[in-house]
Amino acid sequence: VGFRSLEDDPKSKWAMYVDKLQSDLVYKKDFEKTKTKFSSPVDMLAVVLAKNCQKLVSDIDYRNYLHQWTCLPDQNDVIHARKAYELQSDNLYKSDLNWLKGIG
Predict the structure, then answer these.
(1) Alpha-carbon distances, residue 100 vs 22, 96, 104 (angstroms)
(2) What is the pLDDT of residue 33?
(3) What average pLDDT does the segment 6-29 reach?
(4) What are the distances in angstroms from CA 25 to CA 31, 35, 103?
(5) What is the predicted pLDDT for the residue at 3?
(6) Distance of CA 70 to the CA centre of its chain
(7) How far apart are CA 27 and CA 21, in angstroms?
(8) What is the 3 state secondary structure string of the chain?
(9) How many whole angstroms separate alpha carbon 91 and alpha carbon 9?
(10) 0.85 cut: is pTM over it?
(11) Are 57 and 66 in contact (CB under 8 A)?
């Protein structure tokens, strides 16, 4: 009852300690709620394209026809795939042509 400051009183000291613990618990609880949320600028093209592609290939739409593929034309894998497709198409055309020459 005759304490000079709050730090001298054991009950006040205990109350401040409990208040600090509760504040830490609230902070950690809020952190756990928001730690998995991600925000990015809406107009980031790479992020938008990745979201669209992920939505297309997700497990939910596993059996749906993929008809909305979007990708940048200057990506290395797109360039490589295009060249591979052109080579394959050219080889098929030549093999069909040679087969037709053999018949005629």
Answers:
(1) 84, 6, 6
(2) 82
(3) 81
(4) 10, 15, 83
(5) 67
(6) 16
(7) 10
(8) CCCCCCCCCHHHHHHHHHHHHHHHHHHHHHHHHHCCCCCCCCCCHHHHHHHHHHHHCCCCCCCCCCCCCCCCCCCHHHHHHHHHHHHHHHHHHHHHHHHHHHHC
(9) 90
(10) no
(11) yes
